[in-house]
């Protein structure tokens, strides 16, 4: 008897029980279409100072080189769309994904539970969990698994859901039933391209990472280039513009993950509060947040850049 359908169904049912929005599965193999695209992007230096994007090129494109004996890539989506936003419309803004507890921890825990479940229910299955911190092309795998299509802003998009979700993977050495990719539903829409404050979307489906507000406010460690003064639309950590204007995000529904709820003080802070933020307040409000990545000095730099 073929156990692949049974195992696949077990995994998808458990993923849903753990709170994941959806789960799709692909065969672990070389990403043929992505290889030339990634190479072109790197050759044009669109990764800016993100040197890590140049590392492990072969592993980035082939999960069997990353996880020995791997056969399946299980892609998972976890909603983070909030029910409340920052109250002061003039205050510096934080990307919605960083409102609550750092997603790396939240998702890693869920992935461990899913892998344990697979091992208990199916037997000796080996694999690794990935959350945006290893050479894995998350969006490419999610699209290959039918969870959505990669939009013109280069984010994954899903009909009836939008794009406000995290993507994670379990790469395991078990054969499963594989899903088929979905079709592109961006059509002639150019809302994201037209709205990008720094013109980082250089052409449909291509984002120059080195021009993106998220790159400047999170990845870039030196001073922000002065030529971008006045173009940040008050974003001090990340940027949601291309997602906010996307028609598919009209369907976004708020998450039900308590750990993604923001620190009570975060939403009520005024522009003045942010401009006068102390190390103490930063440490308290962002104790478990992804914002810690910029450190206090980085966030202060970003806020100062918005002021003049």
UniProtKB/TrEMBL annotation:
Residues 174-206 form the 4Fe-4S ferredoxin-type domain. SUPFAM superfamilies: alpha-helical ferredoxin (SSF46548). It is an enzyme of class 1 (oxidoreductase). It catalyses: epoxyqueuosine(34) in tRNA + AH2 = queuosine(34) in tRNA + A + H2O. Keywords: 4Fe-4S, Cobalamin, Cobalt, Cytoplasm, Iron, Iron-sulfur, Metal-binding, Oxidoreductase, Queuosine biosynthesis, tRNA processing. Coiled coil: none annotated. [4Fe-4S] cluster 1 binds at residues 186, 189, 192, 246. This is Epoxyqueuosine reductase. [4Fe-4S] cluster 2 binds at residues 196, 212, 239, 242. It is found in: Cytoplasm. Binds 2 [4Fe-4S] clusters per monomer. Its EC number is 1.17.99.6. Pathway: tRNA modification; tRNA-queuosine biosynthesis. It comes from the Bacteria. Belongs to the QueG family. TRNA binds at residue 221. One of its GO terms (molecular function) is epoxyqueuosine reductase activity. The active site is at residue 132. Its cofactor is [4Fe-4S] cluster; cob(II)alamin. Cob(II)alamin binds at residues 60, 132, 156, 167, 214, 239-240. Catalyzes the conversion of epoxyqueuosine (oQ) to queuosine (Q), which is a hypermodified base found in the wobble positions of tRNA(Asp), tRNA(Asn), tRNA(His) and tRNA(Tyr). It comes from Flavivirga algicola. Monomer. Its main location: cytoplasm.
